[in-house]
Specification:
Length: about 300
């Protein structure tokens, strides 16, 4: 039996990926498979803009809200999970903006050897003891390429890079240059490329809609459990800012604005990645994609 093509719907945050993906799935009898790192976690469905109950009722969805905030989801682990869902789907539709995940599926991923589990605990303890700046400076002595790619406060990725170097003797950046095999499917990629001003306004509008939908209560329920600050799922845009509000370090209006600004910066980084790393089959204006006729027009361009 021939393997189905995989449709990929990607673009920056708040560009309308979920709405388009569910429309395509509904028209073609497909399954929407999550390719967004933060949407795999279960505690922040509002904050991470997971598909609504109405959208999930219109078509099957997979890999949304399946992990606790404490678990680390690497690109390799996501790739294995996504492959299982692709194989079960008549028409698989990957939907998300995590470039590393999409690259792992479409271009392959390096086969980094298993790292002894104790090294991550040691690295996390060193991050706490040394501080972020000193830890980053030490890592830069051995892997300056990876450090140049990482945000200074990104604990999870700094720790991962250090544990890989300690466990293999080879910098993570070198492992990443050695690509593995891509998934054995043909990918058809639709990139939502919005106007910058449109996207900036939409990010603000969406965050305010989240607040009206109960975002404060959702994030407060996690805050009140005193989670470990190192949990990967706590990096969702808006969570650190609202945590600061609950601690009395920011006012609500300030937390709101900082969260919006950080989300806009993230969207800009995503678009930079798409421009340099992705060769889409179709580039679509989100406004046009939201029209009623758009899904059928797009499907006409996709090989059956």
């Amino acid at each position: 039996m021939a393997k189905p093509d995989v449709i990929v719907v990607t673009g920056p945050t708040a560009s309308g990926k979920s709405a388009l993906a569910v429309a395509l799935a509904e028209a073609r009898g497909g399954t929407v498979i999550n390719a967004d790192a933060m949407q795999t976690y279960d505690a922040f469905p509002i904050l991470t803009a997971q598909p609504s109950a109405e959208e999930q009722a219109r078509a099957p969805h997979a890999l949304y809200g399946v992990l606790p905030l404490s678990e680390t989801l690497s690109a390799a682990r996501w790739r294995d999970m996504a492959l299982a869902e692709i194989e079960r789907s008549k028409v698989p539709i990957l939907c998300g903006g995590s470039g590393l995940y999409l690259r792992a599926a479409m271009q392959g991923i390096s086969a980094i050897p298993a790292i002894p589990p104790g090294l991550r605990d040691v690295a996390n303890a060193e991050w706490e003891a040394m501080g972020a700046d000193a830890f980053r400076a030490r890592l830069a002595e051995h892997d300056p390429v990876i450090v140049a790619r990482l945000k200074p406060g990104d604990r999870q990725r700094h720790v991962r890079a250090w544990e890989v170097f300690q466990g293999t003797g080879q910098p993570l950046s070198q492992w990443q240059e050695a690509k593995g095999e891509s998934l054995p499917y043909r990918f058809f990629t639709i990139l939502l490329a919005p106007d910058r001003a449109w996207l900036r306004a939409r990010i603000e509008t969406r965050f305010d809609a989240m607040l009206r939908a109960g975002l404060l209560a959702e994030v407060r329920s996690v805050f009140d459990c005193a989670p470990d600050p190192g949990w990967p799922g706590l990096k969702a845009h808006g969570a650190p800012e609202l945590f600061a509000y609950f601690r009395g370090e920011l006012g609500l209006n300030e937390a709101r604005q900082v969260a919006i600004d950080h989300t806009r910066q993230y969207a800009k980084r995503q678009m930079t990645w798409f421009r340099h790393q992705l060769s889409p089959d179709l580039v679509v204006d989100p406004g046009a994609a939201q029209s009623m006729a758009a899904p059928e027009k797009l499907l006409d361009k996709i090989r059956p």
